[in-house]
From TrEMBL:
<keyword id="KW-0732">Signal</keyword>
<feature type="signal peptide">
    <location>
        <begin position="1"/>
        <end position="21"/>
    </location>
</feature>
<dbReference type="InterPro" id="IPR036938">
    <property type="entry name" value="PAP2/HPO_sf"/>
</dbReference>
<dbReference type="Pfam" id="PF01569">
    <property type="entry name" value="PAP2"/>
</dbReference>
<dbReference type="InterPro" id="IPR000326">
    <property type="entry name" value="PAP2/HPO"/>
</dbReference>
<protein>
    <submittedName>
        <fullName>Phosphatase PAP2 family protein</fullName>
    </submittedName>
</protein>
<feature type="domain" description="Phosphatidic acid phosphatase type 2/haloperoxidase">
    <location>
        <begin position="141"/>
        <end position="246"/>
    </location>
</feature>
Amino acid sequence: MKAKISFLYFFIALFVCNLNAQQLETSSTKIKDTSSIGELALYDLKQSVKSVGHAFSRPFFWDTKDFTTLGTVIVGSLALSTIDDEASAFFVRNEPHVPELFQEAGTRFGSPQVYFITNATLYGVGLFTKNENLRKTSVLIISSSFTSGLIQSFSKTAFGRVRPGNGYKSTEFRFWSGKPAFHSFPSGHTVLSVTMAHAIAKQFDNTWSKVAVYSLGAVAPISRLFAGAHWLTDIGVSTVLSIVVVDSIDKFLFKDKAYNYPKKEKQISWNFTFSGNRIGLIGRF
């Protein structure tokens, strides 16, 4: 228990230090430093609610490009699913060779408990110190994870995909099943871990800082594969979902001028590609 608590504090301290280490110059914004803590909290709550509403309303405004992207993701996922059983067998077979610390880290990083405590700490520090960068990051994380979390929770029951290791192949589904053994798609650990990592990485301009944050965020998804808790497509689709939601809400906050963006918005261009024997998610800095 002490080890788990120590690990949790280390995780929180790591992200708080990383965000505070980002030296972005602050300028005057619509919410001044003279605002009270209550006023700032109320403002952040309003931005979170607006962001969630924006994210869920986006499909009604999609154009041809957006539907083409959706089609590419679906076709790519179907292609990736052809190796789900073999990939799962490979990861599970090699699980004994994975360091216990890696598996423990993966379980903690993607757990709801660590997510809520970590983000509460980030937001608390940002709120009481009136650090707009921390507040903005927390609002992005909260609204993104709430959006992707609702989609993920609904999808688990709706699709009812079997988890690995239950005597079924990856193509076995029990639609609208309430049984945990049929709640594999998508991965909740991946959604929380990638959402937080992507939201935090967007606050850095340095490529290596981004790589470090993304690497940490990838621990949970990979560990779930080794643990035999999810199929490869569960992880892949969850990753795409998290990235799309975070980017959509971040763009909304930027255009709405909800917070101070001292520099021109800089995003990673993500492309889900598949051809021949290659399938992957490519990010261009």
